[in-house]
Every structure is written in structure tokens, then in C-alpha cells.
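[job 4471] stage=fold_predict status=RUNNING
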Amino acid sequence: MLIEAEDIKALDEIIEDIIFLPFQIPDDSPIKKSSHNAMLLEDEHIYFSTGGHKDTPIHVFDTEGKYIQSFNKQGGGPEEYPFILRLDMFGDKLAIWNYKGVFKLYDKETFEYKGQKNLRI
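[job 4471] inference complete, writing C-alpha cells
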């Protein structure tokens, strides 16, 4: 399909609102930028993963950008995630997907481990 001149729209015709949301990060909880940052916007919170393959915490903000808390359960144990590929929400559980088709489930408020699902065949 070719794009014709009449197909091109001005930005203000396709986007109604743009809001800059600064994250209010405490000095003692710096956030590292990575080439892969999983993010999830949920009704009341923003879950934002940072770091690299060896250190990948998840930071939680409210929808105004105020920092709430961070957690990091990365590791090789049964209640830990090895790597974060993507974040999802299933009911009141935060799902952390890895690259092997497995996701770990945590309570979205307390981050208590709730189990895992394996989608590999």
C-alpha cells in the first residue's frame, strides 16, 4: 500500500491530549535506564522496569508520577524472575514474562509470590 499525501495527518488531528508525566523519584532509589524497559499502565499505578539483564527491579508510581515503591525479585529461585520481557496484569496479580514463555505472578500491592504459568509446549 502506498501512502499518498492526503493520507498524512497533522499531529493535532490524531492526538487529542499529550501529557508530560514526570516520575518523582526519591534520591535513595535511582532508576537506571536500559534499552529494554517494560512498562505497564494499570488503573491506579504505573509499573516500570529498569536495569539490565542482571539487575532488573520494578518501580511503582501512581498515575500522577509519585513514587510508591520498588521491588526486585530477580534471581534463579522458584519465587524469582530471571529476566523481564514484559509486564501484564491478571486480576490483582502482576505477571512478569520472561523470554522462555514463562510468567511469574505476584500480588500487585504486596509483591507476594502467587505462582507461575508456563506457556511452552
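[job 4471] summary: The CA atoms of residues 45 and 63 lie 6 Å apart.
[job 4471] exit 0
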